């Protein structure tokens, strides 16, 4: 299990988690939670099972690690600032499933950009990667696909062909990325490929989407 591997094999000094549910409110900055004890954000729209606050978790933050993340990003040319936001379900739900507590492994949440630009995310990953040399694990929380509108639309229909293409390409890109190859970056930069932001933008603003893969499809 991945959690056992993180805890027992890697034994990290801390975890930096980039949540798909944490988007910066500042167009020019990445936000980093610097809370000592981040609150749990129960951000589950229309989901009474979780919104009733019965689910709790012992979460430990780290102002020191948070400030280090900010410094690391700034040194890499990415503006960042500390906030006291709390931890959304994109982080605490998956970690809670595998860790009874994070008391011994502090977790710092890092936001996504307020805009969607693949080169910016590649740069963000490159900047954070240096933290691994000092025993910090970096986790990106969120599925490759989280388009609930399309999921509902195709509920009783055959999956479109681009779904299989996407799954196959995703596996290859993750593999080359793990191997330190930059082929993934080149593929993402090709606007017309099935893996680019433009080909199928999952829940992104209208101006970033192509009509043939519009995620507001209703017919």
Automatic annotation (TrEMBL):
SUPFAM superfamilies: LigB-like (SSF53213). Keywords: Metal-binding, Oxidoreductase, Zinc. Coiled coil: none annotated. Residues 6-169 form the Extradiol ring-cleavage dioxygenase class III enzyme subunit B domain. Signal peptide: none annotated. InterPro entries: Extradiol_dOase_DODA, Xdiol_dOase_suB. Its cofactor is Zn(2+). GO terms for molecular function: ferrous iron binding; oxidoreductase activity, acting on single donors with incorporation of molecular oxygen, incorporation of two atoms of oxygen; zinc ion binding. Gene3D superfamilies: LigB-like (3.40.830.10). Belongs to the DODA-type extradiol aromatic ring-opening dioxygenase family. PANTHER family: 4,5-DOPA DIOXYGENASE EXTRADIOL-LIKE PROTEIN. This is Extradiol ring-cleavage dioxygenase class III enzyme subunit B domain-containing protein.
């Amino acid at each position: 299990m991945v959690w056992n591997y993180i805890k027992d094999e890697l034994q990290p000094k801390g975890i930096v988690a980039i949540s798909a549910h944490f988007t910066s409110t500042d167009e020019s900055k990445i936000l980093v939670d610097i809370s000592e004890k981040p609150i749990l954000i129960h951000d589950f729209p229309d989901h009474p099972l979780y919104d009733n606050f019965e689910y709790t978790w012992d979460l430990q933050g780290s102002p020191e690690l948070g400030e280090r993340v900010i410094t690391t990003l700034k040194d890499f040319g990415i503006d960042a600032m500390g906030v006291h936001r709390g931890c959304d379900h994109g982080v605490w739900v998956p970690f809670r499933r595998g860790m009874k507590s994070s008391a011994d492994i502090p977790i710092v949440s890092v936001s996504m950009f307020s805009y969607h630009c693949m080169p910016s995310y590649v740069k963000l990953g490159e900047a954070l990667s240096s933290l691994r040399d000092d025993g910090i694990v970096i986790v990106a929380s969120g599925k490759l696909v989280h388009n609930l509108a399309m999921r509902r639309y195709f509920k009783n229909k055959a999956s479109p062909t681009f779904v299989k293409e996407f799954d196959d390409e995703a596996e290859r890109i993750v593999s080359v990325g793990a191997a330190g190859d930059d082929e993934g970056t080149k593929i993402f930069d090709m606007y017309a490929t099935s893996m680019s932001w433009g080909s199928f933008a999952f829940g992104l603003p209208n101006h970033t989407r192509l009509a043939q893969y519009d995620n507001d499809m209703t017919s």
